[in-house]
Amino acid sequence: MILQPKYWIFSLLLLLLTINLSDAATQSVNPRILHIINRLSFGASSGDIQKVESMGVESYIKEQLSPESIPEPESLTSQLSQLQTLGMNPVQLVEYVATYPPRQKPNQEQKQVYRQRAKQIVTEAIEARLLRATTSPRQLQEVMVDFWYNHFNVYAAKGRDAIWVGNYEAQAIRPHALGHFRELLGATAHHPAMLFYLDNTQNRVVKGKAAGLNENYARELMELHTLGVDGGYSQQDVIALARILSGWGIQGRGQQLDNHDSGFVFNSRFHDSGDKVFLGHTIKSSGVAEGEAALDILARSPVTAHHISYQIAQYFVSDRPPETLVKQLTSRYLATDGDIREILKSLFHNPEFWHQQNFNNKFKTPYQYAISVVRATGVEVKNTLPIAAFIRQLAMPIYGCLTPDGYKNTKDTWLNPDAMTRRLSFATTVATGNLPLSYPQPQTSAARKNLPRIPVDAEQLMNTLGNFLSPKTQTVITNNPPRIRSALILGSPEFMYY
């Protein structure tokens, strides 16, 4: 008798609820190798374990910290090149969706074109993100792009940000993901996506009157992006920073500027020209330079160094990272002027990172789980829509976090019965070859039915992942029919963690 999918999901859920992760696994692969792959990537793909065994953990860390030294597959480069809007700058993106002259009210047909093209832009941005995450060998860079985008979150469904989030990731996040924090902070502060999302386009002082002052971005810049919620700043500091950033806005259509492709504009007519006192520092009236000075102060603050170090440690080590580790990373941040690559290098060589209690102790977010499933199975991804749909079903849509604090990366946020059922259903669908990732999106239900179903081979899957399962999990898998073993592996408790 052929087991129905509902039975498979029930079996997987039962397995998830009955296995204790403390059960020791009889591993044939060095657990340090599995640990470094899990933390510096979105999970092992075919050949990764053998590669790290051959080159050594230290060389793997060094390579991943220098992504520019790792060639991208030609297939990935080719797929990305076919995304029409991916290389457009913010001004070009506006012109692409707005087919009517500046300052003219669009008709219904033009509005429809705007909506269709805006949808195309964000769809292509999501596709590029997923193609890189699943396929690129520059895995640490992809991990850090996800980490920093979440840290400097922008919500795609807020007005014009639908057309800017992809460029925001490409221009403000990606180039600086392993660079200096100050450069990353500045790039996000100048991008139209951030200025629009957190309402700094409405932050104006006209004729010396602060009636139009908007504190939203100034507050989140300190509370989330730099100092942290307990960062020691006052309401007066929020007001001072809002005054400093008044006039930081977005280039209008038809407006000719020297930096015509960035979309950023500083409008001196809307800037508070008085001197300010910010976090104990006197900032003299100097136009746009005041904002740069404020960003310097924030980026170099020991409080910011601690806040950023805590978040990095929480992501890479444990939900509640030891304070000794956070202090060491904070010291490294301050010693290197916020060099992210150096902070990570220090982290990856810290004894706390290598403490066995921190192996496989982080629960995967829906995004991490979906990417790890696809990478483990070795499926050639030509259709990312099912991946994006699954992540969206689990309340973590890409570019879809409404609040500026981004998605949480801790277990208590994502571990619940409904989410587990959905994960197990996804694992089963992928393992049985019923998710059409290797073919362009079918246009009809009949076309979908006619796609080949190629199940994932369980033995090959275990070879990709290493013998990482507990004896109890291995027993359950062995005692079940071969046709559901891959689903049991992808739905196992151990695979839910990294």
List the helices and strands and how they pair.
Layout: H1 5-18, H2 31-40, H3 48-55, H4 57-64, H5 74-81, H6 90-97, H7 108-135, H8 139-151, H9 161-173, H10 181-190, H11 192-197, H12 216-225, H13 235-244, E1 248-250, E2 264-266, E3 276-278, E4 281-283, H14 288-299, H15 302-316, H16 323-335, H17 340-348, H18 366-377, H19 385-393, H20 411-414, H21 417-431, H22 445-449, H23 458-465, H24 471-478, H25 485-490
Antiparallel strand pairs: 1-2, 3-4
Helix pairs in contact: 1-21, 7-9, 7-18, 9-10, 10-14, 12-13, 15-16, 16-17, 18-21
Average pLDDT rating: 93
The description of the largest β-sheet is: 2 strands, antiparallel
Total number of domains: 4
Strands, count: 4
Integer-rounded radius of gyration: 24 Å
Span between termini: 35 Å
Order of helices and strands: HHHHHHHHHHHHHEEEEHHHHHHHHHHHH
Q: Count of helical segments?
A: 25
Work out the strand percent: under 5%
**Basic shape:** globular
Low-confidence stretches: 1-5
